Amino acid sequence: MQPASPKQSKVISMDRTDFRAAKCDKCGAKLYPQSLLEPHLSRHRRRKRWFNAELRKLQYTFSHMRDIA
Fold first, then answer.
1. In angstroms, rounded to a whole number, what is the distance separating the alpha carbons of residues 17 and 33?
2. How many Cα atoms occupy the beta-carbon half-sphere of 46 within 13 Å?
3. In the chain, what are the domain boundaries?
4. What does the DSSP assignment read for 27-58?
5. How far is CA 5 from CA 8, 15, 28, 36, 52, in A?
6. Which positions ≥6 away from 27 have C-beta within 8 Å?
7. Per-residue pLDDT reduced to its tens digit, 15-67
8. Would you give the DSSP letter of residue 65?
């Protein structure tokens, strides 16, 4: 494999197909191809549900600590 010369542009060609990027509005990630955007967004939603569940547990614990004291 030849090292890339500085004059060559950094383009990824795959079977002479151009891939358009999809940009995530939440984190700004660029995803190739666009079909990966929906699984990426579902991970955001799953992480948010997990975070909210953990936050509810903490709020419950703190409220009971206040009641005990």
1. 11
2. 6
3. 22-68
4. T--EESSGGGHHHHHHHHHHHHHHHHHHHHHH
5. 6, 22, 30, 31, 50
6. 44
7. 666 667 889 999 999 888 888 999 999 999 999 999 999 999 999 999 988 77
8. H
Whole-angstrom Cα distance, residue 55 to residue 69? 21
Residue the block writes with tokens 């009971």 = 64
pLDDT digit string, tens, across residues 14-26: 666 666 788 999 9
Q: How far is CA 26 from the centre of its chain?
A: 8
Tokens of 44: 């955001």
The alpha carbon dihedral of 44, 46, 50, 55 has a sign of: positive
Higher pLDDT, 23 or 9: 23
